[in-house]
Amino acid sequence: LYGEARARITTCVGGMDAAKERRALSHGAHIVVGTPGRLRDHLERGALDLSAIRTVVLDEADEMLDMGFREDIESILADMPEDRQTILFSATMSKPIMSITKRFLNDPTLIKVVRNELTNQNIEQVYFEVKPQAKVEVMTRLIDMHHIKSLLVFCTTKRKVEEIVEDLQLRGYASEGIHGDLRQQQRSNVMSKFKAGVTTILVATDVAARGIDVSGLDGVINYDIPMDEEYYVHRIGRTGRAGMSGKAFSLVARDEKYRPKSIEGYTKANIEKRVIPSF
What we know:
Blueprint: E1 9-12, H1 18-26, E2 31-34, H2 36-44, E3 55-58, H3 61-66, H4 70-78, E4 85-88, H5 95-104, E5 123-129, H6 135-145, E6 151-154, H7 158-170, E7 175-178, H8 184-196, E8 201-204, H9 206-209, E9 219-222, H10 229-236, E10 246-252, H11 259-267, E11 272-273
Parallel strand pairs: 1-2, 3-4, 5-10, 5-11, 6-8, 6-9, 7-8, 9-10
Helix pairs in contact: 2-4
């Protein structure tokens, strides 16, 4: 609330009704939240006026650049007043992001959040050396053995997401997938079912999982071990929240067995190697 007036917030997201968004924008908005592609579309149609913008926030900047939004982002920023405040949030400060800060920010301040331990002590971190063709079998054994009722599974590609979901569903597990090719309505439906407990296993790529707001997860499984240590931190941080305990299992192929030690060095946390549980 601003005094007695309620702030008007308009959401502009690809995959939703663009005409409805344009009508909302025509009535005026204090805050506009949107994806770069849809915002640029509204700008080109004359439905969005940025001349009065005072603050712009670019969230998950590293992921948006990875998803190919750089041209859209630069076009949107170029249409804004130069005397605005610009704030970028990013898990990593890569060269493309730094180049954007040099072009669009005036004498910016860089703020880093640093912790001695990057992962929650409430999370039990374990890894197993597994043959690629046996990963689904091992994963289902872990789910049954630990009575996991709410699980987030990470893999590297959308094709792998679909394959894992199909394998899990054939085995009788209530699972759904989420990746970058899903329309917003499909994504919303998948998330609604997962939050309601209708779906107990959510399989996702890293990019699609950014911004997912779920609580009470029993565990996280790294079906594919991430090459970037920061991705590991983001992944397992979805469990063990609010003082609760959580489990993080990583399925490591033989040629990746050096990766857990590398992650340990980065996170300063112990990742225990265990024997695959028997059937």
